[in-house]
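pasting for the record
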Amino acid sequence: MKSLNIVSELIEYIKKYEEENGKSPADLQDFISWINGLVFTDDHTAAPENHDLSIDMELTFLLMMQNKHYKNYCKEALSHSEINSPDEYSFLYHLTLVDSFRKMELIHLHLLEAPSGIEVIKRLLKKGFIEEFDDEEDKRAKRIRITPKGRLETETLIPKMNQVYSKMAADLTAQEKVHLVAFLKRFNSFHLGSH
């Protein structure tokens, strides 16, 4: 009978996920990350609504520090490459996963302002890592795809960038990583929804 209770509880969680996200879970890992964020939230230790803003400031500062660590690790990983920034690498990496992107699709994926994103694209075009072509569905739009040179450079950098990701994850246990991912996904979705 206890297993029936767990199944009915899981069904309630699935319903709650669908209400919050407007869709069913895309995959099991996504659902587990989301449910971890709920199950392991300790409401008893939550600060009151009018709590001191110092905790918010500390959280913001720590996130900013993580960004600085990431940039420093990337600088080291990219030091012998023609790729000069994490954004350039990320643009190329995402282009290895698809046939092509519209320019603005790729820029929006990276939450960049249009001028900044266009500059990244121009640098990659100039280096021969990507090429642009007309969009058949929208004549005003341009699409970009990775070139063989860009693919080769990305494949060379993937092991170095994987080391960066390992450093960023520090010595957290697998369980801590899952919990952190769940919290950050919720955190991210809040900020994306506020734009």
